Protein: 4-hydroxy-tetrahydrodipicolinate reductase
Organism: Algoriphagus taiwanensis
Amino acid sequence: MNILLLGYGKMGKIIGEIAESRGHQIVGRINLENRDELETINPKEVDAIIEFSQPESAVENIKWGLDRGLPVVSGTTGWLSRKAEVEAMANTSEGAFFYASNFSIGVNIFFKVNTYLAKLMNEANEYKIAIEEIHHTEKKDAPSGTAITLAEGIIENISSKSTWDLSGQSADSERSIPITSKRIDPAPGTHIIQYSSDIDTIELIHTAHSRKGFALGAVLVAEWIKDKKGVFSMDDFLSF
Ligand SMILES: NC(=O)C1=CN([C@@H]2O[C@H](COP(=O)(O)OP(=O)(O)OC[C@H]3O[C@@H](n4cnc5c(N)ncnc54)[C@H](O)[C@@H]3O)[C@@H](O)[C@H]2O)C=CC1
Ligand SMILES: O=C(O)C1=N[C@H](C(=O)O)C[C@H](O)C1
């Protein structure tokens, strides 16, 4: 299939490599520096857009694809305050929209383990809950989109928690899950969920060894979303 890359940085480059290794053609590699080239792209020659840019650019990029009736696979994080706006546009367009905070199959298994453990821990109020995420120093947003997804999974299953905050910034520490963001090179992405009490500590940890898992997941989703219309997530794509 023909793939247009909107955002050709660390993620765009490995996505392009993996896509070509799977026999796909990259019909455009667009960055901030060459965004004027986007107008030279013929939408009829694009089967899917894979968008990994920056928080302030994602919505404009996604809308560019939806306006042209194209499927857009977006992995950019840090813009979810406008997600409902984008989903509404996708539902009234001829295109398709797929967002995931993390495209790694391993992290999506981690998401399921997180919600399972949260259901069990809902019966154990003596534990304090905390999340930590560690990424490279070029990351623009904090906390990570993955950490926010983890916090949301806990909030949905533990009645005593209703929000999250960047560690130390919450007015209501009883109802808020603190997220600590650390920036240490070359960390591709580590996420830690901790339940601690006076008696013991339970920790779940996911450590990405490279960006390969994120990139492969995005390419597999692009292959899956071809010719689809509407709004989709990893829950639609995964069989577990
Ligand atoms: N969902 C997931 O599985 C993953 C998501 N991410 C997210 O992907 C995003 C990109 O991450 P990286 O590739 O590491 O960042 P990066 O900074 O290496 O690359 C981003 C690229 O986007 C380009 N860009 C910015 N605005 C643009 C625009 N309006 N049009 C076209 N290109 C534009 C920049 O020139 C840059 O080359 C971040 O938000 C990050 O959190 C990163 C890894 C996995
Ligand atoms: O910026 C990154 O690198 C990553 N960002 C995503 C996030 O914000 O969760 C996914 C992954 O952790 C890598």
